[in-house]
Amino acid sequence: MVDQFPQALSIAGSDSGGGAGMQADLKTIQERHVFATTVLVAITAQNTLGVKDAFPLPTKIIDEQFAALDEDLQIKACKTGMLADVTRVKAVVANLKKYDFGPLTLDPVMIAKGGAPLLSEDAVIVVRDELLPLATIVTPNLPEAEKLTGQTINTTDDMQMAAKKLQNMGVQNVIIKGGHFENDNQSSDFVLLSNGRSFWLSAPRVNTANTHGTGDTLSACITAELAKGNSVEQAIKISKQFVDATIRDGIKVGHGHGPLNHWA
Ligand code: PLP
């Protein structure tokens, strides 16, 4: 088969405010010169001030989106973002088992920065037991890593232990985003690769309200880089640099947690 232009897939929820979710994924994948395709799982009514409402889509249309993509496109890497609830997680798991869309980057989106739940409590176990083993890489922040492992994370040693635990649960590679440590003037992410190698990725902490969609942008960038054929290690390093640049020069949009600067 003739090689096509690289194509990636975002399986996620829509953010009407444009800063996070599916919208952040589309922009990021496009910026990395990869063709973006989508399976929309839920719709949120949202702006920079917060999430007003969320509507998970019927599984029939979720299944049909996957089937339509499989029929025609050559998707080389995929990611999951907001998956809403047990029913939607199970639908996505079934489709990812049915079709081959390349390596899966699992962004275990749980709670928006404003506090709105984007994944129901009872769905965390399903993500852990059924989706995690399908993933090539998982990209939790500290609260998400705590939920998935059942372990409290207060120190960098705790982060390393949690990464090992996640790997033991069946995911090949792990990046735990340390951006949430208090009183830290660095944001340090811990990376544990499938071959056992590990390293820290650090960047000076930026004092900004423009961090909406940071996690989505990182996981979408990793997905795009994997779709181009980069290794997991290359994809992670490129994506960390990309996200740091988008955080540094925030743009003025809305009145709350503003979006990233995708032109940085
Ligand atoms: N809305 C949707 C649909 C998302 O997928 C996400 C994050 O993944 C968010 C909102 C939350 O973004 P943040 O926590 O960066 O504000």
TrEMBL record:
The keyword Kinase applies. The keyword Transferase applies. Keywords: Kinase, Thiamine biosynthesis, Transferase. It comes from Paucilactobacillus hokkaidonensis. This is Hydroxymethylpyrimidine/phosphomethylpyrimidine kinase. Belongs to the ThiD family. Residues 15-261 form the Pyridoxamine kinase/Phosphomethylpyrimidine kinase domain. Pathway: Cofactor biosynthesis; thiamine diphosphate biosynthesis; 4-amino-2-methyl-5-diphosphomethylpyrimidine from 5-amino-1-(5-phospho-D-ribosyl)imidazole: step 3/3; Cofactor biosynthesis; thiamine diphosphate biosynthesis; 4-amino-2-methyl-5-diphosphomethylpyrimidine from 5-amino-1-(5-phospho-D-ribosyl)imidazole: step 2/3. It is an enzyme of class 2 (transferase). Its EC number is 2.7.1.49, 2.7.4.7. It catalyses: 4-amino-2-methyl-5-(phosphooxymethyl)pyrimidine + ATP = 4-amino-2-methyl-5-(diphosphooxymethyl)pyrimidine + ADP; 4-amino-5-hydroxymethyl-2-methylpyrimidine + ATP = 4-amino-2-methyl-5-(phosphooxymethyl)pyrimidine + ADP + H(+). GO terms for molecular function: kinase activity.
